[in-house]
Amino acid sequence: MEITGQKLPMWFNGELYKEGETVSNRFSGEEYKLNAIELSMYDFIIGATTIMEMGDPMSNTPQRNGLITDLRKGLDWFRMNNAEAYMVLLD
Fold first, then answer.
1. Which of 17, 6, 13 is nearest to 70 (CA)?
2. How much is the pTM?
3. Per-residue pLDDT tens over the stretch 41-88
């Protein structure tokens, strides 16, 4: 899926939305309108973050390590594709 030059990376295996929406920073409440691609990645990042926060921080499994890697790649993708939204929602 591509919108205005944005593409989700090959490793992305989250849900692909057809429409964007406005989301808010879970700490500050500040809002930002995301397109469908950005919303897909944003939800992946928030979901991965939630799983990491719920899990055992001392656990060192391949699944956890893979999730950490994908979470970092998702954050990097967001910084490169919409730095302003990243600063409002994820920084």
1. 13
2. 0.86
3. 999 999 999 888 887 665 677 777 888 899 999 999 999 999 999 999
